[in-house]
Amino acid sequence: MKITLIHGQNHKGSTYYATRMVAEKISGNIDEYFLPKDFSEGCSGCGTCLHNGRDYCPHAKKVEVIFNSMLSSDTIIIGSPTYVMEMTAHLKAFFEHLFTAWLGHRPEDAMFSKTAVVIATGAILGMNGVTKSLARQMFYLGVPKTYKLSFRVMAASWDGVDNKVKKQIAAATDKIARKITSQKGHPTPGIKARIMFSMLRRFHKGNDLPLFASDKKYWVDKKWLDNKRPWKNN
Known about the structure:
With 234 residues, this protein is α/β, with parallel strands linked by helices.
């Protein structure tokens, strides 16, 4: 099994250890990235990706390294500490560079067969909001199954985390890893994703707006306006 592991921070704190636990318990070939070390650029809002394609983004080379790893992986694991009740700024900036891969634009077929795990830690509050935001990103990229793990660690470093909390983290990561390693085949989109896809399909059938011309051409070329579906190609 191939795993892409993305850390929303450079330092190795509680979130780092929790995400590593999941990856190592699933076992496999791990591609690991740290933000901002491996990606630090913010979206400039130039719109080039929307009109010409992601390859034309001024930060395309760095984005592609991580995104191509995600596309070739079976499982995507993303961890973020809680910063001002949200994911880290560099992690959000990375996702902003992928918005044209969202369902309504030009989603990648490969994403419709992935499993994701999103993880957040925090001293007291905000962790559930972070995992909810991360899971939303996975949904709109087409990922059909996302597990959420959030932990209140009451500490500023892993060394300061109470042993009882560490045991809870170990038990929760054990459970998720077992679920992923025991699943047969790839997950497929649920009813919410299929309804969303159907609504977007109807939109693109009647879409004559110049702003979304590249998106419509993509859907036409994929034959998604006919009977083909991305989750049936995997």
